[in-house]
TrEMBL record:
Species this chain originates from: Neptunomonas phycophila
Protein name, entry field: Uracil-DNA glycosylase-like domain-containing protein
InterPro entries registered for this protein in UniProt: Uracil-DNA_glycosylase-like_sf
Start and end residues of each stretch annotated as Disordered: 70-92, 105-125
Gene3D superfamilies: Uracil-DNA glycosylase-like domain
Length: 317
């Protein structure tokens, strides 16, 4: 045993750590008896006589109790090997009982931290709690719902018509049908039904996906920007908004179409606005044509609302 201890100390001084099994390993040769009593860092061996008596006495007791614990472990391993096979649950309970016994017989020389030092004193907030107290929790800001619409712009000599077309469907075929009805409507109001510029269709959303903000506010600003370009290129004239999407986007209101029909609004001081049913509703429901005609009476005659000026034709696109 002494020779093995000196061999370990020699290897330890060279920086080489020894490894010895404390329990029986499966399919391995049994370890000699001295392995169970071998101690790492035996301060009672030669070369450590310069330690004081108090420290040596304490380490002696500690080493003795560690040796007893190691012997108990070896005995427990031998008992498990010699005992007949047990059910898995019983074996687990027996092994746990042995481990609890080892924990109870833990060497008294081992220094443990004081539990009072591990816990923070009462009344003193921890850094994490103090940081959390200074963080202001704000509700998540949800993006505006992206509206879906398709607006058609027609520029006549005495009126601007913006219609809410169906968001789905073929634009060309629907645009022709809607334009014929729009021309007849303007002619019935006693105005020149000749188009001053090519019709323009504004679909929304413009881009697919939600990477960009295309909410209701942005959509309304885009529609009004297009209308401002038309008014900048041509003299102000009455604006006829047909359908709920056109009325809400241009006037930046959230009321339903029924709450705004037949009323005259001021888009600006020199541009009056009247709201009625969409051309799609007039084509599908004949009664809507009669109601639309009653709504449009508020702007008659159209010539009274047109500012005289040289009208230079230009494209809406």
């Amino acid at each position: 045993m002494d020779s093995e201890q000196r061999r370990h100390d020699y290897l330890q001084a060279m920086g080489i750590s020894s490894w010895l099994p404390r329990t029986a390993l499966p399919a391995a040769k049994a370890s000699p008896d001295w392995v169970n009593t071998f101690l790492y860092g035996d301060y009672g061996s030669e070369g450590f006589d310069d330690l004081d008596d108090a420290g040596g006495h304490e380490n002696h007791h500690s080493a003795h109790e560690v040796e007893v614990a190691h012997q108990t472990t070896h005995q427990l391993a031998d008992a498990l090997q010699k005992s007949p096979p047990l059910p898995s649950g019983h074996a687990r309970e027996q092994l746990q009982a042995g481990l609890n016994a080892l924990t109870t017989n833990k060497p008294t020389g081992v220094k443990q931290e004081n539990a009072d030092n591990a816990t923070a004193p009462q009344g003193v907030p921890s850094p994490a709690a103090e940081l959390a107290a200074n963080i202001e929790i704000k509700p998540r800001q949800h993006k505006e719902e992206i509206p879906t619409f398709r607006l058609a712009f027609w520029l006549f000599e005495q009126a601007i018509v913006i219609d809410s077309m169906p968001p789905q469907g073929r634009v060309g075929q629907n645009l022709d049908r809607h334009q014929r009805l729009c021309v007849n409507m303007v002619r019935a109001m006693g105005a020149n039904a000749e188009l001053v510029a090519s019709p323009y269709v504004l679909p929304w959303p413009i881009l697919v996906g939600d990477a960009l903000n295309q909410g209701r506010t942005v959509a309304s600003e885009a529609v009004r920007y297009k209308l401002e370009k038309v008014l900048a290129d041509h003299p102000p004239r009455p604006i006829i908004l047909l359908g709920e999407s056109a009325a809400q986007m241009v006037m930046q209101r959230e009321e339903s179409i029924d709450d705004m029909r037949g009323m005259v609004f001021n888009y600006r001081s020199d541009a009056k606005v009247v709201i009625s049913h969409s051309l799609t509703q007039m084509l599908q429901i004949p009664e809507c044509k009669k109601e639309a005609w009653q709504d449009l009476q508020a702007l008659l005659p159209l010539a009274a609302y047109v500012t005289p000026a040289d009208d230079t034709a230009s494209s809406l696109s």
